[in-house]
Design brief:
The structure is a homodimer.
Chain A (H helix, E strand, L loop, with lengths): L12 H19 L6 H8 L3 H7 L3 H26 L3 H19 L14 H27 L8 H13 L1 H4 L8 H14 L22
Chain A binds a DNA duplex through helix 3.
Chain lengths: ~220, ~220
Amino acid sequence: MVQIVANPAGPKALARKLEILRSASYAFGERGYHETGMRDIASDLGMTVGNLYYYFANKQALLYFCQDETLNGLLDLAAWVGDNAEGAAERLFLLIVGHVICINEGVPGSLAHHDVEALEASWRAKIVRKRRRYELALRTVIEDGIRAGVFAKTDVKVAALAILGAANWTVKWFREEGGLGARAVGEGFAGQLVRGLLRPGARFEPPNIQVPVFGGL
Amino acid sequence: MVQIVANPAGPKALARKLEILRSASYAFGERGYHETGMRDIASDLGMTVGNLYYYFANKQALLYFCQDETLNGLLDLAAWVGDNAEGAAERLFLLIVGHVICINEGVPGSLAHHDVEALEASWRAKIVRKRRRYELALRTVIEDGIRAGVFAKTDVKVAALAILGAANWTVKWFREEGGLGARAVGEGFAGQLVRGLLRPGARFEPPNIQVPVFGGL
DNA sequence: ATATAATTTGAACCATGGTTCAAATTGTGG
DNA sequence: CCACAATTTGAACCATGGTTCAAATTATAT
């Protein structure tokens, strides 16, 4: 019987797939997608390389699922912020904090490397589509802030790109050991980026509520 | 006679090396370092793949020289800003604008991917050392601003990282065709990031001087 | 015109790493 | 205990792409 299954339905399959995804995501974050081989991932998991192909069609599938999970986490974050904060400045603050936490503690590394070049076209399209939905949510918060007079009039696209850049680049350098945690980094970023958008004279204090960790595998 | 020269001194050598570096830098920016093959670079230049090795020892050398040139451009930028602007807010503004221009119009793509993982250890050390000098220059400007009372007291390292993140991430999405130029993007970012650091009540208007393009190959 | 230097070619070599798969092992139900 | 399903193994296969180099071509100096 043909051996390659790549979507097994046995009792251990789901747990095993999540275990593999966590390990792959961590490795991609630490070493980079290209510097991480399937033998490395297998070795980290204490299995042999052929076994990975029982659960996943290929290496790109691993990357795709990691990125997809991250984006699901970011979209969940956006929905949570919409439900749990009112003012645009508060919402933007929480989005930024949640974003940094999601990509550094939720699913480390796999979105922010943005290595969609390594994905084949239909998977890349799916990832890009989810990214766009999230970026739209971000821009909507900024536009709401301008409309409400909390933010000064500004180029919304540029403002959103600055925020995404600051947040996404954290996967290049953030490491948990020593120093500040992801939440503290996120709060520092959010303070600066939100204050940078305020209408002169507008007041802002960081909100009291704490963002959950979204996107955990 | 041994064919591999990799540092030829003939009359055409320097011009050819710069031509190769420009083409490689562009390709690395467009496609990513790993997705760009030596055959691709050769083909873009209308030469054959073996010829590249007459001028450069290996693929990593191409990456190293591109990144080194970008960092030289950023260090030149920092020096120019020190010579041509006085106030910390003005200096920071110009640094951010110049940074975005340097990495998108000067030497596209090769620093901001930060793909130093792909470099061997001694080259990586050189790149990281130059990067640190530039980041120190950036932090010094922020510290000067805090000391002068222009910026509010803040975590300087976090503020610098937000700035570097926003600026460096631009190579992931910035494309010259259509839309805003690098200078306009940089000015939008700089406005937001500098204003985000100001002491409440401090005034700031973008400076009138225009940053040159540093780092051009 | 000729000798020498510089530059280019392009096929071949080679290591790497993604992927396959027959056989083996382990788990589970009757 | 046995049959079958699920899972694992690990050597082999194979494509890719970095690199080499003998030979050829072009450029330059005499």
